[in-house]
Amino acid sequence: MGHTVKRGTLPAKRPYLWLSWLLVLAGLFHFCSGIIPKSVTKRVKEAVVLSCDYNTSTEELTSLRIYWQKDSKMVLTVLLGKVKVWPEYENRTITDITDNPRIVILALRLSDSGTYTCIIQKPEKRTYKVEHLTSVRLMIRADFPVPTINDLGNPSPNIRRVICSTSGGFPRPHLYWLENGEELNATNTTLSQDPETELYTISSELDFNMTSNHSFLCLVKYGDLTVSQTFDWKKSKPTPSANQHLPWTIIIPVSACGISVIIAVILTLTCLTCSK
Ligand SMILES: *[C@@H]1O[C@H](CO)[C@@H](O)[C@H](O)[C@H]1NC(C)=O
Ligand SMILES: *[C@@H]1O[C@H](CO)[C@@H](O)[C@H](O)[C@H]1NC(C)=O
Ligand SMILES: *[C@@H]1O[C@H](CO)[C@@H](O)[C@H](O)[C@H]1NC(C)=O
Ligand SMILES: *[C@@H]1O[C@H](CO)[C@@H](O)[C@H](O)[C@H]1NC(C)=O
Ligand SMILES: *[C@@H]1O[C@H](CO)[C@@H](O)[C@H](O)[C@H]1NC(C)=O
Ligand SMILES: *[C@@H]1O[C@H](CO)[C@@H](O)[C@H](O)[C@H]1NC(C)=O
């Protein structure tokens, strides 16, 4: 007993005492019923609608007590139609207390995964009795997008450097560079985790000899999932530096032509006025 009281930074007041009581009761009920809660999978930043599955009239709702808890922590309460949201869910929860009470949690985080329970209490002889209880298991996924491979140019003659990167996934990823199924030595592999969202970013560089054809695979493994991107290098491929010269080869003759025409026109006009 008293889990929430100890956990919370707020002083222990009477409502918190019976709230913790309720958590215990709910826990017991859940344990005894042995019902596997239905399960919902969402992605990070998405929204989820969690319903109490309790149909009632809007009039009756004002006399009910509705509690939403996640595992053993409070999410929100609706007492006499008044909504109280716990700080972790503040500013990203919508409460709908019409005929079927439900909540919407926006901007889902990895830490939101868990079992959510809605408990509805009804007034009965100067006290409240648990009228309804429902649980939903929420799983949050964070998939890495397909990695991107970018050219970093030539660190030395005949050596090309490319970088493979992806971000916004979970759990901790591992990156491999492969050619013909063999692992290559990567340089500068970096892994970082956003302290707020817990999502990872990974990148890795690869240097290769430009004088032969290559087909590289950048493979990112996380949990039991993988994402990958291939990078093909053809020896005969023109280098980007040659492409950069292309605009000038057009601009110079074009502007030269333009200038010649203008000069010719001016000269002709001057001659015409001279001859008069
Ligand atoms: C609640 O009402 C909806 C339609 O209004 C119905 O589809 C649903 O089955 C009802 N649920 C329960 C638990 O009575
Ligand atoms: C919620 O929004 C209000 C007003 O914008 C702000 O004062 C409060 O700090 C926010 N709470 C959280 C937990 O972000
Ligand atoms: C990778 O590095 C190891 C040790 O640093 C070296 O023995 C091996 O030859 C390297 N492999 C390639 C393909 O460069
Ligand atoms: C690693 O990356 C840093 C900056 O991103 C760069 O200065 C350094 O030269 C790189 N080292 C290698 C071996 O690629
Ligand atoms: C690249 O490969 C060619 C042919 O295999 C070799 O002659 C050359 O030394 C290599 N260059 C570097 C920088 O390793
Ligand atoms: C490299 O690729 C090009 C284009 O596909 C091909 O014409 C050439 O024969 C290849 N060279 C080698 C050594 O495989």
Automatic annotation (TrEMBL):
The signal peptide here is 1-34
Pfam families in UniProt: C2-set_2, V-set
CDD domains noted in UniProt: IgC1_CD80
Answer yes or no on keyword Methyltransferase: no
Q: Which UniProt keywords apply?
A: Cell membrane, Disulfide bond, Glycoprotein, Immunoglobulin domain, Membrane, Receptor, Signal, Transmembrane, Transmembrane helix
What is its membrane topology? Single-pass type I membrane protein
| Superkingdom of the source species | Eukaryota
- Please give an example of a GO cellular component term from this record: external side of plasma membrane
Where does the record say this protein resides?
Cell membrane
Ig-like domain location is 37-134, 145-228
Any GO molecular function: coreceptor activity
- Which one GO biological process term can you cite for this protein? negative regulation of T cell proliferation
Annotated membrane-spanning segments are: 246-272
Q: What is this protein called?
A: T-lymphocyte activation antigen CD80
Q: Which organism is it from?
A: Moschus moschiferus (Siberian musk deer)
Q: Which gene encodes it?
A: CD80
